[in-house]
Amino acid sequence: MVTTQKALQTPDTKFQIRPVRLHDVDALHIRCWSDRPYQWVYQLVRRAQQIAHQGRGLGIVVLNNNVIQAYGQVTMWTCCAEISDLIVAPASRSQGIGTAMIQYLTRIAREMHAPCVEIGVALGNPRALALYRRLGFVDDHVRKLNIGNGQESVLYLKIDFEKDI
Description:
Layout: E1 16-19, H1 25-31, H2 38-53, E2 57-64, E3 67-76, E4 81-88, H3 97-111, E5 116-122, H4 126-134, E6 138-146, E7 151-160, H5 161-164
Parallel strand pairs: 4-5
Antiparallel strand pairs: 1-2, 2-3, 3-4, 5-7, 6-7
Helix pairs in contact: 1-2
């Protein structure tokens, strides 16, 4: 099947993508979440590992030249899979890493037989919103969420795998 949705295409193989490990916490804290407490990053990785152990998802890191550049995860919920907690190290943005990571996580969701995959973006993040739309995600719904700096509108975008068949 040929798809026009870029999120369903094979990720660029120049990046190494693998499951997150506990020993990645230091590098993730330094490169991606230096503004967050170390314990926050540690707990995020632990939750990702628990979800993977339960067979409900996966947390990943993306490496370029053996250096961690990014993190993301996919979680299976009752009706849909969700891609979340995406971050690319500031110095590594605009190099295709985010695209490769989303393509990889979308493939995982599809392999887990999710009927759809969704991804949320704060409306104050136009770069991420443009990326998700360019990859083929379509606007689905908006929710007000507390994401650090108080209430913010978050747009959820979706790819329905069943419509793609």
